[in-house]
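Data availability (excerpt). All sequences and predicted token strings are deposited with the supplementary files. A representative entry, ATP-binding protein, is shown inline so that the format can be inspected without opening the archive.
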Amino acid sequence: MTAAISGTESVGVDLPYRAESVSAARRLVCVQLAVWGLDDLVEDAQVIVSELATNAAKTGCRLWMRVEIERLTEKAVQIRVTDGCRVLPVMVKADGQDEGGRGIALIHHLTGGHWGADQLPNGKTVHADLGVVA
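Structure token line:
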């Protein structure tokens, strides 16, 4: 069993809607997980934040997207990306000919289904919980 963290441990950054923001989001997650001693989550976390930030960058709905990582327990984190588009993500079954459409399914797999999206007045936040035991 993992213990809950007292107080909020989180970091976030506002990034422009540009392709290079995806690598900045990956660096944020990598550095923060190292600070928390959660190196075993880095690979999956970088895939997740890459997918979420790429999806946000494609919307181009606002000037900035917000990328955050919060420590939920000693061994679990939540990655969040907020953008200015109110269209919620859906998991689709992409076939071998599709060039995209696999990101949310990949996030679903890596998180064991612990992900979701919240609609906001001016956009949405997509979150993914990593390291959560069902």
